[in-house]
Specification:
- The protein is of the alpha+beta class.
- 65% of the residues lie in helices and 14% in strands.
- It has helices spanning 2-13, 24-34, 36-56, 107-174, 179-214; strands at residues 21-22, 62-72, 76-78, 83-85, 89-99, 223-224.
- Helix 1 runs parallel beside helix 5 (179-214), helix 3 packs antiparallel against helix 4 (107-174) and helix 4 (107-174) packs antiparallel against helix 5.
- It starts with a helix and ends in a 5-residue tail after the last strand.
- Mean pLDDT is 83; it is low at 1-18.
Length: 229
């Protein structure tokens, strides 16, 4: 009787916590939006796009314009005559320059092509990461779902053993069955109780793995839903 009571207490203690329930589609969508590796790949893609845009603009000619002015007094060189003078002078200067590439052995075109390929590769890498994360999330989700079903199976088995033990104990008390039968069933209840605890621990480990892929706080209440038949 004591074993059966302990088993019932353990059975009630391993009920999965209630919380926000997630289905497979929600898990995959959330992972794609929040996974760290996907975010890093997306940052690299944006950098590659900026470099590609910069390389395309390298064909545009460069031009610059500047001016300077100043005041000279005391003994100095007159910039108009290049002779020494003691007069006060006010001067201004202007400059304009431009840089146009006529031919450089296709260096600019090759740089543009290289930058474009880098941008395309970065975009493909983002999609690859999304596909990998989606596959990993789906695999982890199914593993957690399977372990959740296993918890239900072991709990049903434990309940059946407990009911069988209670019935056998009554038969032992009235003398229709030997005490050995009840002892065997008590051992079976203990084994089934251990199976429930092990199955629930495995379920929690699978949930933690799934939460890690989703980049969720390990302490956040989290449960998964079973697909509708």
């Amino acid at each position: 009787i004591l074993v059966a009571a302990v088993a019932r207490a353990q059975d009630s203690a391993v009920v999965p916590p209630s919380g926000d329930e997630w289905d497979l589609r929600r898990c995959v969508d959330y992972a794609v939006q929040h996974n760290i590796s996907i975010r890093q790949a997306d940052v690299q893609r944006r950098v590659a796009d900026l470099l590609f845009d910069q390389s395309k603009k390298s064909r545009i000619p460069n031009a610059s314009f500047g001016f300077n002015n100043g005041l000279q007094f005391g003994r100095s060189i007159d910039p108009t005559t290049n002779l020494f003078t003691n007069q006060q002078l006010l001067y201004q200067g202007f400059n304009f320059s431009t840089d146009v590439t006529i031919f450089n052995w296709n260096r600019i075109n090759n740089n543009i092509l290289s930058s474009r390929l880098e941008a395309e590769a970065s975009a493909a890498d983002v999609e690859k990461n999304k596909n990998n994360i989606s596959m990993n999330v789906a695999t982890s989700y199914l593993a957690a779902l399977l372990s959740k079903v296993q918890v239900d199976i072991t709990r049903v088995q434990l309940k059946q053993s407990q009911e069988q033990l209670a019935d056998t104990r009554k038969r032992v008390e009235v003398g229709t069955l030997p005490e050995l039968n009840a002892v065997d069933l008590e051992a079976q209840v203990a084994r089934d109780s251990t199976s429930v605890i092990s199955a629930f621990a495995n379920y929690q480990l699978n949930l933690l793995s799934l939460k890690a892929l989703l980049n969720l706080d390990a302490a956040k209440p989290f449960s998964i839903t079973e697909p509708l038949p």
